[in-house]
Amino acid sequence: MTTTLYGKDILDVQSLTDDEVHLIMETAARYERVMKSGGRLLNMDGKTLATLFYEPSTRTRLSFETAMLRLGGTVLSVADAKTSSSSKKGETIYDTGKMIEGYADVAVIRHPETGSAAELAAGSSKPVINGGDGAGQHPTQALLDLYTIIKEKGKTEGLTVCLAGDLKNGRTVHSGAALLARMGVKFIFTAPEALAMPASITEGLKKSGVEVEINPDLDSAVAKSDVLYMTRIQKERFEDPEEYERLKTSYEVTNETVKKAKKGMIIMHPLPRVTEIAVEVDAYEGAAYFRQAANGVPVRMALLALVCGCE
Ligand code: CP
């Protein structure tokens, strides 16, 4: 049977089959080649994307918007969904979904509550893409992270990936761990004890046979990692500001860290960064985080076209 994503909601990485993931990677690579050769794509001509962002975003929002425009489609946006949409008047996300289906062909939502994208999808008959729901999932980030690793390292099988920083609250590492685990990687989890990866994720990975090392020491972790995936300490998810102050500078990647790294190690980060990667590291050839952000465009183009049946 031919793989298709037509009409599918992209809510989490677990709902994507391996064939669907490969189709997204192949479609993104094809679009990237067309753009690099100066070609134009009009696959989404006549289609509209609605973006509903109830939390701040630069990369996810802008890359989805430019992705839609580069495919010849149009974008409807609520400037700040939290304050300027009917949610302020008490409208449920489910009802917003019912309304959005009459205005757009596909919607992207970011929201502080886990499960909000699923609620929008329950209301809308049109495909809904999760652009990050609280500390839950960020599936499109996981897909662009996978795309980046394949581009940078040429494979995933056998690589050691160190996920570092706020593994408790970081939705990018929750989605990323679930997706990369299926691609043959080994993990090192590097976090202060208070920000460790949720036990349900770690135990789930181990039960499915994935190798996981818990190692809070960044220097010894980078010495054996092919990929260092740094994350920001998520200030907005802390209930106790003092706890944030205590943990905010847990790790800083500097040129000294890079000197201790395994040869060829790449450094990734979903961005924005605060102090966890020093600006001096940007000159390191393995500093892949800005290339990673750019990869969001072809990957999100592929997702939009595939769920709308316009690939
Ligand atoms: N990586 C990411 O989700 O960035 P934004 O918060 O800017 O969208």
Automatic annotation (TrEMBL):
Quick check: keyword Transferase in the entry? yes
- SUPFAM superfamilies listed in its UniProt record: Aspartate/ornithine carbamoyltransferase (SSF53671)
Q: The organism sits in which domain of life?
A: Bacteria
Pathway assignment reads: Pyrimidine metabolism; UMP biosynthesis via de novo pathway; (S)-dihydroorotate from bicarbonate: step 2/3
Q: Tell me where in this chain the Aspartate/ornithine carbamoyltransferase Asp/Orn-binding domain is found.
A: 157-306
InterPro entries documented for this protein: Asp/Orn_carbamoyltranf_P-bd, Asp/Orn_carbamoylTrfase, Asp/Orn_carbamoylTrfase_sf, Asp_carbamoyltransf, Asp_carbamoyltransf_Asp/Orn-bd
> What family does the database annotate?
Belongs to the aspartate/ornithine carbamoyltransferase superfamily. ATCase family.
| Name of the protein described by the UniProt record | Aspartate carbamoyltransferase
The major lineage groups are: Bacteria, Bacillati, Chloroflexota, Anaerolineae, Anaerolineales
Gene name in the database record: pyrB
